[in-house]
Amino acid sequence: MKNDKSSAGSLTRRRLLKTTAMIGLAAPLVASLSSAYAAWPDRPVRLIVPFSPGGPVDVAARLLQPLLNDELKTSFFIENKPGAAGSVGVGQAARADADGYTVLVTSNTIIINPLLYRSVPYDFERDFLPLVDVAGSPTAYTVNPRLGVTTVAEFVALAKQKAGGLNFASSGFATPSHLAGELFKNRAGIQMMHVPFNGSGPASQAVLAGTVDMASNALPGAHPHLVAGTLKGLAVTGEKRWFDLPNVPTMIESGYPEFVLDTYVMVLVPAKTPLEIAEALGAATRKVLELPETRAKLRGVGLEVTAGKAEDLKARIARELPLWREVVQIAGITPQ
């Protein structure tokens, strides 16, 4: 019994020594993380926008940038990295240092692209930590007034008359606006050639120039032209009309039940970003989004603020992924 007690005591001492050693090894890491968080941000923070200027993501990022400068007392700067429907910029963000100095501002193309490309340079779940559901925007179907149509019904009639002779622009292959255009074709029973552009701005410019017949675009890319009257809005894909475009009906009002699709903007960071830094960035972003003047500015350019937390964004992605998978199947698009 004495030997048993001695052996048990020795084992207990070894366990204590091992635990103490592990705590000792972990302490510098904890101190390092706390030190990094305490110092962050002590240099400029990069906002990667994987699209050209003028689209919903770029518009949102440029409105957030000065507000985050003030809130976090540092300099945020935007890098537009367009290409492959956002995959180029997203891939760069996935490979960036997870130190809180690279932030990705993107759209739901990040979850759509894997449905449409055999290979993308990122894995959403492995490479990113979702932070904020920023805002959503309906798609707007727009035409040049010179086309001579003013409603969805008139456009569909013209498309059927020309038997595949019309085309439509989008902000790029695999973007929500592209899929919204494909769904329009399917639901209306018409044929149109898709002409992808590198962003919403160029797509709208093509309609203005008359080189394409219609644009299927997230609202921010079309909004200034609709307000100015240089483009004619046939419909939007929201549940209700946009507040300052009262003469542009919804697709539901145009005779297409349950036709509701959004492009939404989100903020993410590389997956291994220290949690304290990620939470601080998420809290700061939501705080500036909830300011009445921020909501008014974003709404004025075609974005409805949601300011959702990380768990809200994850739930939205889980909820909408089956919808986009269905739209891809309806459109008959095979992975490239």
Task: Give a topology summary.
Elements: H1 2-39, E1 45-49, H2 56-72, E2 76-80, H3 87-95, E3 102-107, H4 109-116, H5 124-127, E4 128-143, H6 152-162, E5 166-170, H7 176-188, E6 192-196, H8 200-209, E7 214-218, H9 219-228, E8 232-236, E9 262-270, H10 275-289, H11 292-300, E10 304-308, H12 310-331
Parallel strand pairs: 1-2, 1-3, 5-6, 5-7
Antiparallel strand pairs: 3-9, 4-7, 4-8, 4-9, 4-10
Give keywords.
10 strands; D-Maltodextrin-Binding Protein, domain 2; 336 residues; alpha/beta; ten-stranded mixed sheet; 12 helices; 2 domains
How would you describe what is shown here?
With 336 residues, the protein is α/β, with parallel strands linked by helices. It has two domains: 162 residues, Bordetella uptake gene, domain 1 (D-Maltodextrin-Binding Protein, domain 2, 3-Layer(aba) Sandwich), CATH 3.40.190; 99 residues, D-Maltodextrin-Binding Protein, domain 2 (3-Layer(aba) Sandwich). Helices cover 49% and strands 20% of the residues. Strands 1, 2, 3, 4, 5, 6, 7, 8, 9 and 10 form a ten-stranded mixed sheet that branches. α7 crosses α12. The longest helix has 38 residues. It is globular and about 65 Å long. It starts with a helix and ends in a 5-residue tail after the last helix. About 1% of the residues have low confidence.
